[in-house]
Each structure stands twice: as structure tokens, then as C-alpha cells.
Amino acid sequence: MGGKVVTITSGKGGVGKTTATANLGISLANLGKKVVVIDADIGLRNLDVIMGLENRIVYDLVDIVEGRAKLRQAMIKHKKFEDLFLIPAAQTRDKMAVSPKDMVELTDKLREDHDYVIIDSPAGIERGFRNALEPADEVLIVTNPEVSAVRDADRIIGLIEAADKGPGRLIINRLKTEMVNKGEMLSADDVFDILSLEIIGIIPEDEFVLSASNSGVPVTLNAGSRAGMAFTNVARRITGEDVPFMNLEDNPGFFKRLMRFLDGR
Questions:
Q1: Which residues contact 17 (CB under 8 A, 6 or more apart)?
Q2: 142 touches 11 (CB < 8 A)
Q3: Which end of the chain is more exposed for a tag (fewer CB within 10 A), N or C?
């Protein structure tokens, strides 16, 4: 089969899905893997901005599918990594321009020469989500530790399992320990109890993330960023490495429960 296709999705927008995609792509490349990231959010592309590649776009995903560009022509090489490429979304085309079959054919070609193909799925459950889901070998669901985001994530988990792409794994993003301690935010333990899904990463709130996204230099390249370290650890887990979770102040007992869950799978 060759490389592995990992789709990153969420039940609602604004939870940090595209930021997670960019940082995981960078982290995997930094680990020496050959990686292509695909922005499947036709009409609302943002992945190119976060990766600092927005000024280098000539062709996009729809151009490949409709035959105006060859695959290699549309692949934008990252400035810092020889083996990291972006295929951007079309910004002005109809979302129906790409089908699930198109995505399978595209990713099958990319598997031949790359270790990982990371797909940034549109939020929600429409055509773009189905496009991103169809070729996936693994699905990562990004959620914030708040009730509405977790509820939407639960709905997405059901759709993933119905498509025989589950159960998927969970990234809890923007956890604020001080809010958890005040009872103003769900803890990782709470999210785990609600969704009963394996957690592959817990990303703490980090002041560096916003500035990193605006500058086009993903936070995982910032050695002083806790979020960057957490994203790197997720990438290592994707490759199969056994990496301990970062200690969270709000609920140290969560990690014992998580380990028991993983051991019992």
C-alpha cells in the first residue's frame, strides 16, 4: 500500500484543526518522514497561510482533479524541509468539484513516494468531509474541551465508524489548566469519559500558537512552546512510538486511567 493517509477532522470549525494539520505535517517531516499535506477545504483554504506558503501557489487540488495541472506541478515544497509538500485547496471553486473517488485516486498516487499523506478535512459533515474521509487509513478528531465541541465531535465519531473508518483517535486542543481547576472548562478526563475514544494528544493553551500561525512558522518549530512539544509528541505517536503524555496539572489521575484503557484494548 505504501504511505499512510491520515485525515484530520472536527465536528465544528474553530477548534484548531488546520493548525493541528500544519504542525503534524511539520513534525513528521522533522522526524525525517516524507510528507504531503492536502487542504481539502475547497473555498476556505487556510493551510497555506499557516505553513507560510500562500505566496507560492500556482495550482491547486481542483486543477489536479480537472487535469489542468500534473500532480507534481501543484505540490508546493516547504521552505525548510525537502520532503514536505502542500497541495492547496481551490479558493473560488464549488465544493462539488472534487469527489471521494478523486481523493482516493490522488492519495493512491501520493502513497507511492511518501510516508504520510495528511488531509485537512473541512469541519462538519458535508461533501468535503466525505472527500477527506474516503481515502483515510486513520482519522484524528480535533476537539476543544468544551461541551458544544465535544458534542459535535461525538456526532463525527459516529459517522466515521459508520463509514468503517473508525474508531479514530482524539486530539484535545487548547486545554487551559487554570480554567479546568475553576470548573470553567472540561478536563481531559471529562472528555475521555464522554467520548470513550483513545486520546493521541492533549495540546495545552499556548500564547505562541496565534503568533506562529500569523507568521507562517508553525509552533512546533518553536523549541520553547509547550503546544509545539505536544504536537511533536502526537507525530511521534502516529509513527508508532510510545511517548509519555505531558503532565497536566489539572488532573494527574487521568493519565493512570488512560494507560489502563490503552492496556485493555
A1: 8, 9, 10, 120, 121, 123, 142
A2: no
A3: C
Q: Any idea what DSSP says for residue 250?
A: S
Q: What is the pLDDT of residue 264?
A: 53
Task: Say how many C-beta atoms besides its own lie within 10 A of residue 29's C-beta.
Answer: 24
The confidence band for 251, taking pLDDT boundaries of 50, 70 and 90, is very low
Residue 260 has pLDDT above 60, yes or no: no
Q: What is the pLDDT of residues 89-142, one digit of tens each?
A: 998 767 788 999 999 999 999 999 999 999 999 887 778 899 999 999 999 999
User: Under DSSP, is residue 12 helix (H, G, I), strand (E, B) or coil?
Assistant: coil
User: What does the alpha-carbon distance between residue 70 and residue 159 come to, in Å, rounded to a whole number?
Assistant: 33
Cell of 78: 516547504
Question: What are the Cα distances from residue 28, in Å, to 18, 42, 56, 66, 238?
Answer: 15, 24, 22, 30, 9
Higher-pLDDT residue of 45 and 81 is 81
Task: Grade residue 211 by pLDDT with cuts at 50, 70 and 90.
Answer: confident
Sequence letter at residue 248: L
**Cell numbers 501543484 correspond to what residue?**
74
Q: Write phi, then psi, for 70 (nearest 5 degrees).
A: -75, 160
**Residue corresponding to grid cell 500561525:** 213
- Sheet with 169-175: strands ordered across: 76-77, 84-87, 35-39, 116-120, 4-9, 138-143, 169-175, 199-204
If you search the block for the grid coordinates 461541551, which residue do you land on? 147
What would the DSSP string read from start to end of 98-135? S-HHHHHHHHHHHHTT-SEEEEEPPSSSSHHHHHHHTT
Which residue from 81, 97, 104, 102 is spatially nearest to 34, judged by alpha carbons? 81
Cα 132–Cα 136–Cα 140 angle in degrees, nearest 5: 85
- Average of per-residue pLDDT values in the chain: 90
